[in-house]
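Bumping with the actual sequence this time:
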Amino acid sequence: MNRRRVATGIVVTGIALSAPLLGAGSAGATPVSAGCHSGDRVPTSDPHTYDSCIEGEWGNLRQCPPFTIVTQAADGDVRCVNE
């Protein structure tokens, strides 16, 4: 029984320590709160990429076609426009 408690503590601690790293996979994406809506898109710090929300999770980086950059549109979406 004591081994089960130790194993559970290790797993819970591992999850707690790795949780902040999950958001780091977005590679400089604009900080957004968890629980996004599928289809939401935001520009990243790289002018050629944007982050999209799929099934409530950020970290799905997309890249604009060559010779275009990401801009924030008035309707809240992003667009790839000529450089």
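The tokens above came from a reply further down the thread. The first helix runs from residue 2 to 24.
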